[in-house]
Amino acid sequence: MNKIKAKITKKTSLISEVESKLNDQVKMEGVSSQFYLAAASWCEREGYENAANFLYGHSEEERMHMLKLIKYINASGGYALAPEIDGLKYEYESLREVFEDVLEHEIKVTNSINDLVDFSFKVKDYATFQFLQWYVAEQREEEELARRVIEIFDIIGEEGQGLWFIDKEIAKLKDQADSGELGAIDSAE
Ligand code: OFO
């Protein structure tokens, strides 16, 4: 780091508690990315090709979420730390269990984002508060998507060729999400 940069980064309004909580969120997004990657690989091994593509794509998105936080922390004069990740789950009983875990995981991430938003507001870090609004909206979409996938299991049923059709429907849902069609709730309001 050159001296000019060192002088600039020493002065910042980013308080250390916010920096530390943002770094915790970096880790959570990193965990998300690896969680989706592990689940994608399981689906691919089991022959659920569309579910695997869905989850591989989502793993990339989560990495982008992590990177966005890293860039924000460093641009704000803090120091973002690349996370260490362990404790991943590699085996599932069923495809449904994968997506039930996805929904549970996303609810956990939403709660974590909400706590962070709450804290940044309490300490009057309005820049961080504003920055986090993107994550608030993103979590709402992701929870909706996970719920929609689980609905497919309930509607189609897993017996006979059900799982084959479910896997096909997951691909359609991914296309809808990518084209922003899942946000129909927003436009209907
Ligand atoms: Fe990072 O969006 Fe979900 O977890």
What is the compact description of this entry?
Helix content is about 80%, strand content about 0%. The chain contains seven helices and no strands. Residues about 185-189 have low confidence and may be disordered.
Calculate the terminal CA-CA distance, rounded to whole Å: 50 Å
Sheet with the most strands?
A: none
CATH class: Mainly Alpha
Counted by DSSP, the helix tally is 7
How much strand content do the residues show?
Answer: under 5%
Global geometry = elongated
What is the CA-atom radius of gyration, in angstroms?
19 Å
Q: Output the CATH homologous superfamily.
A: Ferritin, core subunit, four-helix bundle
Structural class: mainly alpha
Total domain count: 1
CATH architecture: Up-down Bundle
Describe the structure.
This protein has 189 residues and is mostly helical. It has a single domain (13-177), classed as Ferritin, CATH 1.20.1260. It is elongated and about 65 Å long. The protein has helices at 3-10, 16-46, 49-75, 95-122, 126-156, 162-178, 184-188. It is 78% helix and 0% strand. It contains 7 helices and no strands. The chain binds hydroxy diiron-OXO moiety. Residues 29, 32, 62, 65, 106, 109, 138-139, 142 line the site of hydroxy diiron-OXO moiety (OFO).
